[in-house]
Structure formats: structure tokens, C-alpha cells
TrEMBL record:
UniProt signal peptide: 1-17
Lineage: Eukaryota, Fungi, Dikarya, Basidiomycota, Agaricomycotina
UniProt keywords, alphabetically: Copper, Metal-binding, Signal
Organism in which the protein naturally occurs: Mycena albidolilacea
Name of the protein in its database record: Blue (type 1) copper domain-containing protein
SUPFAM superfamilies: Cupredoxins
Domain of life where this protein originates: Eukaryota
GO MF annotation: an example: copper ion binding
Length: 231
């Protein structure tokens, strides 16, 4: 399985945990939601240690993951730090090497890939349970993947499936990347579009029915002009 070597944790102040069980290679795991300092104006990833690797998402407004290439051992955690940019939210979405800008769909041999959804000022973490299988990911925001906003975990250092080859494949797609239509976009649009309520004049209940229109028809009879008799 391409992504069996991970479990997923979601950390935020307001987001409910989603069930990503089954990514741990059969054992599965349920994500946890814990209080976090991620909802600050510009969250920044702390320094790495031997078991925890941090990734800045779109640092400084640049559409990239930093670092984009990660080598993480078994039982280590990789945490993605999302900026507070509600106008341009980002995601970390699992894909495959062959389709770098497409969410990894479930198949007979694999489960559906992980997806943080469009995220602002929060943290999204995965736990590595099998370091022998590479993990490919991208931002699903329209055209971001084609602009190079992709990354990998435990990608081969040599051969034809390196991170450099994955990045090249995503960049080749470029601005022709298909737009993703998802529930996330609907929620995002409803969040930032002002709601409009009908005014009393516009409300059907307050409207006054119009009187019936009477059509009057007038019959006009044309007569020849009258000439007085001559003597």
C-alpha cells in the first residue's frame, strides 16, 4: 500500500477530529484533537528533533512546503503548520507519484489518501509507521500543485521516483491543473460571502396582491361622410 505507513492526528482549537483509521498498516488509529497555539496570526513551525518533523505551509505567502522533502523514521511525527490566510487557504492532500495533483482515490489495494481539507491557522500531523513506503502530497488549492506546491516523505534518493521527478511532473501540469470541486470550497464560499435576507418589500408574505387588470375593448364604426343634398 502506498500510504499504509502513517497515522494521522489533527491539532486545532476548533476543528473536530476526523476518522482516518486504517492508515497504520492494519492497526489503524483515531486522530485526536488537542488545544493548540496554531491560531495565532502567523504560526511558524518549531525546530525539528529526532522524532518530530515540522513543515511550514506557504511560508511568507510563497506557494510551497518548507521543507518539501522529508526523511522520517518509523514512529516519528510530521506536522504541517498552516498560516492564517483565510482568503487563500491551503491543504495537505495525499496523491501518487503518477498523478501528483490528484487526491489518491481508494482502490482494491489501497485506501483513500489523507486530506486535511482547506485549512487556516491550524496544525495537521501524521505519524509514520512504515518508512519503506514513500508518501506524496500536494496542496489541492486550484493551480497551487502545478506551481510546485508539492512534497514527499521518505521518497527514494535515486532512480526514477525521486522527489525531484515528482516535482517535475507536477510542474509540467502547470496551470492546466483541473479545478477541484469539493465541499470544502462550498463551505469556504459560504463563510466569506455575505448573507442576504429578503426585505419586507421583497418578502412574499408582505407583498400586496395586484388588482386584476381589466381589458376594455371599444368598437369603432367608420361611416362614410354625409353630404347635404344640392338644390
Amino acid at each position: 500500500m502506498l500510504f499504509s505507513g502513517l497515522a494521522i492526528l489533527v491539532s486545532s482549537l476548533s476543528v473536530a477530529a476526523q476518522d482516518y483509521g486504517g492508515y497504520g498498516g492494519g492497526g489503524g488509529s483515531t486522530p485526536t484533537t488537542t488545544p493548540s497555539s496554531a491560531a495565532v496570526a502567523a504560526p511558524s513551525a518549531p525546530a525539528n528533533d529526532a522524532t518530530h518533523f515540522n513543515v511550514n505551509v506557504a511560508p511568507g505567502g510563497v506557494f510551497k512546503f518548507d521543507p518539501a522533502e522529508i526523511t522520517a523514521p518509523v514512529n516519528s511525527t510530521v506536522t504541517f503548520w498552516f498560516p492564517n490566510t483565510p482568503q487563500v487557504p491551503h491543504s495537505v492532500t495525499q496523491s501518487s507519484f503518477d498523478a501528483p495533483c490528484t487526491h489518491l482515490a481508494a482502490s482494491a489495494n489501497t485506501s483513500e489518501g489523507f486530506d486535511s481539507g482547506f485549512t487556516v491557522a491550524k496544525q495537521f500531523s501524521i505519524v509514520i509507521t512504515d518508512a519503506s513506503k514513500p508518501i506524496w502530497f500536494h496542496c489541492k488549492q486550484f493551480q497551487h500543485c502545478g506551481m510546485g506546491m508539492v512534497g514527499s516523505i521518505n521518497a527514494p534518493q535515486n532512480g526514477t521516483t525521486t522527489f525531484a521527478a515528482y516535482l517535475a511532473a507536477a510542474s509540467k501540469i502547470g496551470l492546466s491543473e483541473p479545478q477541484v470541486r469539493s465541499l470544502d470550497r462550498v463551505k469556504l464560499a459560504s463563510k466569506f460571502l455575505p448573507s442576504r435576507k429578503p426585505t419586507p418589500e421583497q418578502s412574499p408574505a408582505a407583498s400586496t396582491p395586484s388588482p386584476p387588470v381589466l381589458q376594455l375593448r371599444q368598437r369603432v364604426v367608420l361611416r362614410p361622410p354625409h353630404h347635404p343634398a344640392r338644390g
